[in-house]
Amino acid sequence: DARVTQTPRHKVTEMGQEVTMRCQPILGHNTVFWYRQTMMQGLELLAYFRNRAPLDDSGMPKDRFSAEMPDATLATLKIQPSEPRDSAVYFCASGSGGSGANVLTFGAGSRLTVL
Amino acid sequence: GQSLEQPSEVTAVEGAIVQINCTYQTSGFYGLSWYQQHDGGAPTFLSYNGLDGLEETGRFSSFLSRSDSYGYLLLQELQMKDSASYFCAYGSSNTGKLIFGQGTTLQVKP
Q1: C-alpha B72: how far from its chain's center?
Q2: Which of A73, A82, B37, B104 is least enclosed, having the fewest CB within 10 Å?
Q3: What is the mean pLDDT of residues B38-49?
């Protein structure tokens, strides 16, 4: 089965450190999403790419978060500097199709703990 | 603004039928999807409604009424393994992004 691969699966770091999360979308999928999940906020959209171009990152704190897609096989989400409130599970998801891609395949998630 | 509303929790017994409702408010609506997420797992796609009406996939069905900005997920013959969180999500034709509701936690009891 084709799958979305995320690394690392777990990350514990100290406040102020840089965190980079990586995602390998399913080959042939042209949309990539980053979501953050906490108990309080549900699944919160952080960034969205189509054909590697960033289309929407309005949900992302711009001062510390950045998302890139250097090539079709890699998407990255970086937090610098990290803060305890960033502790959450970060999911990457990919999909195919035009606007309003509704069928996404999610990765297993990266659980981040910032102390 | 853009939003989705769904109940936070639902409880039902094994073998029963349960309906999880979802209402939405958005401009540029493309379709309504449903995802299932077990504790500690990733969301997985269940069903999609691009047009009004009912879509059936085994024990699960999903319904959409665009005129009422309303949809639901119907789970029949509930099993213990159906205990999970269920999210409705809409696709925006304006931006192409997929926005999720807060999720409904379903507890199936013996």
Answers
A1: 6
A2: A73
A3: 93
